[in-house]
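forwarding from the other thread:

> can someone predict this with ribulose-5-phosphate?

sure thing
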Amino acid sequence: MTQDELKQAVARAAIEYVIDGEIIGVGTGSTANFFIDELATIKSRIRGAVASSEATASRLHAHGISVYDLNDVASMPVYIDGADEINAQGAMIKGGGAALTREKIVASVARKFICIADGSKLVETLGKFPLPVEVIPMAHACVARALAALGGQPELRLKDGKPMTTDNGCFILDVKGLRITDPVALEAQINNIVGVVTVGLFAQRGADVGLLGTEEGVKKIE
Ligand code: 5RP
């Protein structure tokens, strides 16, 4: 099976977690896009969705799914999103698609986080994928120095030769070289650096369920 077929399989499996009559939180990325396309097939069963990025909101709108402002939603049962890496405890690295801050915010309002990913994303130790950190633009250099002091090699994410700007008007530092043995502690430590908006470690609030696409079928971790 191709990687896209594995992503599609987990997207389809995640439909089982959608609660009829409720609002669902929806993540960002290629796996989340497959999920949105599946969600469209049952859209009459849900009230609508909260999007974790402008791209996800556009795709939901294109399918005729109502998109709610998070400020109008007090709670939602489920948030479904992909990941760049996930470990057996459900801790994740996210933000390859630069939507980490909104993803973390929407996930924080959901009672359950369902992570959908192809099996290659399952790792023993997080950190091979460069850790995204969203930063206030004026602070990118001083935050980069603080991240280097933690042992990482931060690089400003570029697009067309210029710093890439997130949906929040901020920049992303991708940090290589971190072997993340205590993701909960590192998440708190990086979030504490002045100038950091959000670190792409999702460990304090990790996934409750992981659905991983493999050649042998969809494997579940919880
Ligand atoms: C976006 C994310 C994505 O969930 C992550 O990058 C995985 O993307 P994909 O499903 O395309 O592999 O965190 O900010």
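The chain has a mean pLDDT of 98. thats all i got for now
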